[in-house]
Protein 1
Amino acid sequence: MLHESIYLTERISARGIKHCLLLPLSAKERTQLRAKRSTLDGIDVILYLPRGGGRLMPGEVLKSENSKVFVSIEAAQEDVIRISSENRLKLLKAA
């Protein structure tokens, strides 16, 4: 059974929105405003947001072009590297 892709085309205020699909995105993925992704429920969505709007932030809500589907952006689990040094200059150079 084929289903149409859900195009997310607009950022909206989260106020008053009770039911949203959850879309976990990594920091890198939140900079890509046009891409195909999957929600936590396994529903494929296509980000088709205007360019120049800046990166997506956790907690933002997107709506579909027909205003029937709402998706909340979440920060995806990511590995973190922690680097420390007694020498601040060497640490700065490493960064």
Protein 2
Amino acid sequence: MRILWASKGWHSTDRNVVEGLAARGHDVALFTLAAPRFEWSVPVLGTPTHPLLGPLLGPAQLRKACEEFRPDVVFGNFVTTYGNYAARGVPPGVPAVAVGWGSDLLLHGSWFGVSLLTRAALRRSRLLLANAGHLAEAGRSLGARSVELLPYGIDTELFRPDQPVPEGWPEGAAPTLICTRNLQPLYDHKTLIRALGQCTHEPAPRLVIVGDGPERPELERLAETSGVADRVIFTGRIDNKVLPAWLAQADVWVSAAHSDGLPLSML
């Protein structure tokens, strides 16, 4: 089957899906309006475009990509953006499948203006793929014609509790909370840091924040002003091969996300 995967192109999910489909013998191409961040083993179609121009230029660019690649099906990853471009841009006879993850259905579906893009994508798509039941219900309420629930998981051979202590793990035996979400406003690390400052548990717990993002400087300042800078550890990005060992050492995984589907970081 010839499959066009329309998405940002730089998320780990993109790479897992595209490479996984190609490894199973499908002809796969990536359509993206973002500048490539690494090398791809499949054709990459689309011209880098400012995100604000996506709703205007995305459908036409995607139609051009379809004329070049001639896919049997187009997957639009994240309903509000590429799901919308796919639903509006596919040529007649080519099914568009919207892929929903969380905010695109739980938040964008109720935002003034933005909800129009989400609803248009769901009404015009042949199918909505959702990875959790509450997302499937949200999609139906927003006008999805057909919904399939497609849960996904993790490699249990890789993510095991019997992992050695990784290099860089903080010393001491304090109870440890760990958060592995990107440092973006959606994931609300500020609430976690403020909560740590109000915790009266003895011994005092610590919070390991794995990852990076634009909020890091502000979060580091908040840890200082909240008096918990000595108990908040910012690791920056950690290689995926090492991450299971960090998770295995922690006592509790935490997240304060404003909306979520079924995040791999939690699984």
Protein 3
Amino acid sequence: MINIPAARLADTWVEILRDQPRTEIVAMSKDGKRIEAIQRSLVFGFVDRISSQVFQISDQQSTIAIYSRATSGYWDLGVNRRRVQSWLQLLEQRLDQSKR
């Protein structure tokens, strides 16, 4: 749970997705809180799909759920887990910077 409105969390999340290499937002809900994106691997261009949704807890509290997975193969060597962890750290940093 994060102490910011859901719309602000969603906007910041979209900024992070747009800043990532080889990443494309392919669908977004009208309210901007549900986002589907893909990211292609650098060498072979394998596609990973990233689904996310921001949930409003109260007027000033929200949270995000993110699911990243490979669209081919059986195992991704932990790439998707590391991606989500890294992006969550970026999200936290950006939100902390915007509070200053």
